[in-house]
Structures are given as structure tokens and as C-alpha cells.
Write the C-alpha cells for this entry.
Amino acid sequence: MSSQQADPRELDAVIIGAGFSGLYALYKLRQELGMAVRVFDSADGVGGTWYWNRYPGARCDSESYYYSYSFSEDLEQEWEWTSKYPEQPEILLYLNHVADRFDLRRDIQLSTRIKEAIFDETSNRWQVQTDDGERFSAQFLITGVGCLSATNLPPFQGLDQFEGEWYHTGQWPHEPVDFKGKRVGLVGTGSTGIQATPVIAEDADHLTVFQRTPNYSLPARNALLTAEGQAEVKANYREIRRRTRESRAGFPYAPTEKSAMEYSAEEQQALCESLWQEGGFKFLWGSFEDLLTSEETNNIVAEFFRRKIREVVDDPATAKLLTPTDHPYGTKRPPIDTGYYEAYNRDNVSLVDISNSPIDAITPKGLRIGDTEYEFDIIVFATGFDAMTGALLKIDIRGTEGQTLADKWEGGPLAYLGLQVAGFPNMFTITGPGSPSVLTNMPVAIEQHVDWITACIQHMRTNDLIRIEAKLDAEDAWVDHVNEAAEFTLFPKANSWYVGANIPGKKRVFMPYVAGMIEYKTRCNEVATKGYDGFELRSA
Ligand code: N01
């Protein structure tokens, strides 16, 4: 449609993003409340993060049986996961299946970027415009833009002069990239770089990894699921979901009841070893209860990791470079790998430490650090995302009195419950900053948010209310609470994307809510029970 459109199309809700969040929000609002809803996504397919992140080795770091929707028992029973940690194409297939299974596609508009959303205080509606000028008017604006979707490509000088191929992992091409016989440079050793390294190393003539900060990576110990394993999960789904919902981070694991200090050194090592052998996120959420609050406990675990790195990596100098010492374990999102440290035992893989000598420029032949030029056929940037706020701030969102979200968040994100921003009525942010989001198993956090939003809109409809807006004092109190909760932990000690440290100039604020899903959900439910305490509700 062109910009000649006379009147905006009227909707009840505009949802931005067709990933886990947007699909479920569409399902709930249409199915349960009968609302006229439209989902927009700039991609030409559904899937959100699983649409974009197609890099080699991309797979889920959480196990398939709980990294999935819980809202439909039929869906749970009919979908067959093939492995413990599904690869990206399988999760994308799952989300496409969900879109078909629940007839969602008729209300999803793909290849369409939302350019601006402006709140009209007279009608109490959002006026939304797409990048090709199509206009919509909706009572509610619901963002499901993802916490890790705005890619971060550092402004390396000379990139446009590079004569080879280059890719950012978060915008990977749909056609396979052929690494065979190629000299490949990989920048970044976060979860993505760590997943990609061993897979690229399999094919490349030579892979050079540029590391600014080493990470603590844990083996996934992936395995195919057997028919018996599948049947057991399916028979126990309700119990699994109960455990995830009643856990701190939405994983079906519980930590020890006592501090590590109350165990003997042998017991401490035995627990670490069994979790290492089991693999995956259980180390983070199912080990010592004070892992993320006690430096002493954290040191025990960090030392355990350091020893494992020394054991796995043959060359002591490389092992030393790969050993993290700058942050406590778990205070940056821990990577989960399949053969990462082992990859450095290959003859065709080398590691370059750039902690003290950053990449100066990309050259036509490769990249330059100081006086040394490294020549490549392909450069892969696994340099992450402008997390949690980046994707929202790409849209020109304007609330009351014309205030932009960018202005409001100049000093860091402000939100009440991570769900609403004062001054932006009728806008809900699924897994927004100030909510547990990235510190949880995302589908659990997403379902909780969408269920809460749906109940809130239902309440408004039942009571003839047309506008809901977070109050400033409630927002201030919540932001203080989010900061206090973080200060109680070791998290602020790391220069992580949780605090925006990966983006030069980004205000350092701890963005996710660290107190956990149970505490968070209790608070959200109390707010609702008290008639949406902290929100101002207006009738027609
Ligand atoms: O990004 P990152 P990611 N010069 O920001 C380096 C999720 N995820 O894409 O640490 C040189 O973690 C940077 O260095 P430093 C998961 O939540 C999920 O890996 O800032 N290097 C770092 O090494 C994860 O946490 C899955 O010093 C530069 C790397 O690039 C999140 O996505 C799988 C640089 C970026 O690491 C982000 O992970 C994969 C520069 N100028 C990811 N700028 C699942 O399985 C940055 N770096 C679900």
C-alpha cells in the first residue's frame, strides 16, 4: 500500500515482532479476547531471533523440552524434538508450525518494518506507520521486538574496502556460506562466537579467532532424543512446566539449599564435576544457591572452570588466554558449547588476544592490529547486540506531549515492571527492560508477560476503561528496586551487555530484573489484584 492511503486502518492492537512473543500475543488476544490484531515483522518469515540467527552452529542453549510454549497441551504432544539442544532450523520449523497450527498467519504482515508509533491523546490510540507509508490506528501497542535483535556491528574503519566476504552472525544469509579452503577471521567470543568456532573450524582452511574477553563456557553435551526419552517428557509435561514456573529462572532445576561454604571441598568439587558432566544451564541455575551473590562461592566455581580449560586445551599459552579472570562466573551470560575449547587443539585454529590491542581497521585483504595485518577470505562478526533497548529505540515511538522513547530513556531505560513506560499509555513491552527476561528461560518469561497483558486488557474491557498508564512514582520505585536487586548480586561486577557495556556510549544501567521469576510474578499478580496498583486507568 502506498502513502496515498486515506484513513488509517483501525485495529484493537498492533504487535511488533513475529517471534515467540508476537506469535503468542496474537494467539491470546485474538483467541481469548476476540480482538482485531495485526503483527508486523521486518523479516519475510516468522521466528524472530530464530529467523535471523542462522550462523553455523546456531542452536538453543536451553533444552528443547522446556524451551518451548506451554500454553497448548496438544502442541506439546504432537511436536517431536529431535535433540536435546535443537539447532536453529528446527526451532524455526517449530515456530512456523505454531503459526500454521493456530492459524496465525492471516494476521501477520511480514517484510514490514514499523517506522513510527505516535500516541494520540485525543483518541487515546496509537497511530502507527510502516516503512512504506501504510497507516494503522490501534488502542494498544504491544512490542515483542526481542531483547537481542538489534545487531551490534562496531564501526570498524575500512569495512567497505574489504575485498572478501563478511557477515554478522545476527543477520546471516539464507544461503549456506562456503568456508571450505578459506581463511576465516572470527571476531567475538560470546555465546555466538563460541557456538560458531568449532563448526567453522571443521570446514575452513584456517580460522583465526579474535578475543577481547575470555568467557566461561560449559559443554552442552547434546544428544539425539530417543523415542523413550520423548515419551517420558510427553508423559511428564505438566510436572516439567510446574517446575519451570516455580523456579527462579524458568528452568526445571533447583539450586542447593545451602551455601557452598557449608559443603566440604570434596563435596563442592563433586557437585561441580557432576554438573559439568551433565552439561548445559543446570550449572548456572542448579548449583550453589549463593553462586551469584557470594564472591567466595563464585570463586570456587570459577576456579573449577579454569582448571577444566587447562585440562582441555593442549597449548598452555592458549589455555591461559582462554581463561577468564575479569568477571565472576555467570555475571555475563554463560555460553554453552559443543567442542569449543577442543577446537583450539586443531592445527587450523588460532587465537589472537585483542584485550590490549584493539582491531585498528579492516583492510582490503583482512584486518589490522598495530603493525600486523591478518589476511582473510571471510570475516565473521559475532559482536552481539544492542541488547534490550536497541530494537525499541530503532522505532520512533512518541508518547504523551510528544515525548520520544529515546528522550525518556536517554539516561537508561525506565519502566514499571518492565511492562509499561510512564508517558506511553496503552503500550506494553513484552520482556522489556526491568523485567526478568534475559535472566530466564525466555518462553517462560514471554508467556507470563503475555498472560498478564491479556488479563489486564480483559479487565479494561470489562470495566469500560480505555487507557492505562504507569504512574511516574510507581515507575521510579520499580527502577530503584531493579537496581537494588542487582546490587545485592555479583552481576554489576561484569562489563556485560546486561549493563550495556558492549555499546560505546550506552548508559551503564543494569537492565534485567535479577530477583527471579517467582518474586517477579508475585509482584505482577499483586499489582493486578490491587486493581492495577501503580497504573492510572481511565474510562471513556
Ligand atoms: O554477543 P556477546 P553474542 N572488537 O555480546 C566482542 C544470546 N545467544 O551474539 O566480551 C572486538 O555476548 C565481545 O567482546 P567483549 C545470549 O543471550 C543465545 O555472542 O565485549 N570484539 C564479545 O566477545 C548471548 O549472551 C543463544 O569484550 C568485540 C563478542 O564480541 C547473546 O545472545 C546463542 C567488539 C560479543 O558477544 C549475545 O551473544 C547465541 C569490538 N569492537 C547467543 N565488540 C542461544 O542458544 C564486541 N566484541 C539461545
User: Anything to note?
Assistant: The mean pLDDT is 97. The chain has 17 helices and 20 strands.
